[in-house]
């Protein structure tokens, strides 16, 4: 699935709109048909493992409820929205929507959130700190969006709901099925439903320095890094420095040299390419939301026999993230935050694992190191990261694993 660039080109979008200003892409998906129904969305919002919210407004009194929900029969006909995160991790048809933005780095994509909203519903004017492409499904919705402004302030109108008092709109359009609105970070926006509708939001992740620092600290602890302690023999070279250094610095505790030495201890750890590359690949392949992971006990011999059966394929668990890293004489394959040591000659097959959602017997056996490839895939199946399936099951809820 690709965006039908009509009013601008993809290059124009990247140069002039991406992370700069909002834009509406009319007829971006010609003849678009919903890839999930409102009933199916309501159904998964009843599950414990799903992140879902119900946002309603009555007489300007906003209310946010969190799932799982038991039923929806008591809701009014208007002024409420059901929002469900990470639906792409459970419906292959929803995951396919991410191919619309495959011109952007894959690691940046967070998830596909889907909302069903009744007439006059919305979540109010607000800001997000991430890029988002919102696809209009059935129904109609009026969208207003303003220029990027990081100085705008939001206030909490209800628990877990921030809103703006207002903003000056540079976009004010009604979206119909197949239209897309792109909204960059800190662009104020507001959507109000005209006809009951579905919206598909492809959200992008942008790690903060705080998040990376926290995750890197955990990584260092997990891998027993950073054990080297501060040391110096400078005092023996210049004993007078013990007493004189304090007076030459704004700090009564440390000299500037000591401060720099302590900073360098941290820099030497994070500036190590091997360490940071290992960390960032592990971190970025960790799931951001719940996946349908089902471990399956199978041996290499059993897998080989299974693959000989007609129409058998091995599928990647929806939402799974993977990457690879060349280190010395080996290849590290990262999957779901886990590390797998591989032979350098497996690199072509590993790229297939990264870029494809299913494997056949031919894919596994068409390489010189085919046995090593099957051994790797067997481990991935044991972990629940890939699973054995039938060729016919290309869409729908990922329910074929258990």
Characteristic terms for this protein:
26% strand; alpha+beta; 12 helices; Malonyl-Coenzyme A Acyl Carrier Protein, domain 2; Jelly Rolls; three-stranded antiparallel beta sheet; single chain
Task: Describe what this molecule looks like in 3D.
The protein is an alpha+beta fold and 402 residues long. It has three domains: 10-204, Jelly Rolls (Sandwich), CATH 2.60.120.650; 209-271, no CATH class; 300-390, 3-Layer(aba) Sandwich (Malonyl-Coenzyme A Acyl Carrier Protein, domain 2). It is 26% helix and 26% strand. It is built from twelve helices and 19 strands. It has helices spanning 10-16, 38-44, 92-95, 209-222, 234-237, 241-244, 256-270, 273-284, 300-307, 347-355, 361-365, 370-383, and strands spanning 23-25, 52-58, 61-66, 80-84, 109-117, 132-136, 140-146, 155-158, 161-163, 169-175, 180-183, 189-195, 197-204, 312-316, 322-327, 330-335, 338-342, 358-359, 386-390. The strands form five sheets. It has an eight-stranded antiparallel β-sheet, with helices on one face. Strands 10-7-12 form a three-stranded antiparallel β-sheet, with no helix packed on it. The chain is globular and about 65 Å long. The two termini are 29 Å apart.
């Amino acid at each position: 699935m690709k965006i039908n660039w009509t009013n601008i080109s993809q290059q124009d979008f990247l140069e002039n709109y991406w992370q700069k200003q909002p834009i509406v892409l009319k007829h971006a998906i010609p003849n678009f048909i919903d890839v999930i129904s409102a009933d199916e969305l309501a159904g998964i919002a009843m599950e414990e493992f799903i992140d879902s919210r119900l946002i309603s407004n009555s007489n300007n009194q906003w209310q946010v409820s969190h799932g799982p929900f038991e039923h929806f029969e008591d809701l009014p006909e208007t002024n409420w929205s059901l929002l469900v995160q990470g639906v792409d991790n459970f419906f292959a048809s929803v995951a396919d929507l991410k191919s619309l933005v495959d011109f952007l780095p894959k690691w940046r994509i967070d998830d596909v959130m889907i909302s069903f909203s009744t007439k006059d519903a919305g979540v109010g004017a607000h800001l997000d700190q991430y890029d988002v492409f919102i696809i209009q499904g059935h129904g109609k919705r009026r969208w207003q969006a303003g220029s990027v402004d990081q100085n705008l302030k939001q206030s909490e109108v209800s628990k877990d709901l921030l809103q703006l008092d207002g903003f000056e709109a540079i976009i004010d359009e009604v979206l119909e099925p197949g239209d897309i609105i792109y909204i960059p970070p800190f662009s104020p926006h507001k959507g109000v439903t005209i006809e009951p509708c579905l919206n598909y939001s492809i959200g992008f992740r942008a790690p903060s320095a705080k998040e990376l620092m926290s995750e890197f600290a955990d990584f260092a602890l997990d891998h027993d890094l950073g054990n080297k302690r501060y040391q110096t023999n400078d005092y023996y070279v210049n004993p007078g420095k013990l007493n004189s250094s304090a007076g030459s610095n704004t700090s009564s505790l440390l000299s500037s040299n000591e401060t720099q030495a302590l900073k360098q201890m941290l820099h030497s750890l994070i500036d190590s390419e091997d360490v940071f590359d290992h960390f960032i690949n592990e971190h970025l392949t960790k799931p951001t939301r719940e996946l349908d992971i089902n471990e399956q006990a199978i041996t290499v011999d059993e897998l080989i026999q299974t693959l000989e059966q007609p129409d058998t394929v091995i599928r990647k668990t929806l939402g799974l993230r993977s990457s690879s890293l060349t280190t010395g004489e080996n290849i590290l394959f990262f999957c779901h935050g886990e590390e797998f040591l591989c032979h350098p000659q497996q690199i072509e097959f590993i790229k297939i694992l990264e870029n494809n959602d299913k494997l056949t017997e031919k894919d596994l056996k068409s390489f010189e190191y085919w046995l090593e490839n099957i051994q790797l895939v067997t481990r991935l199946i044991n972990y629940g990261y890939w699973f054995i399936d039938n060729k016919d099951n290309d869409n729908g809820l990922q329910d074929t694993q258990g």
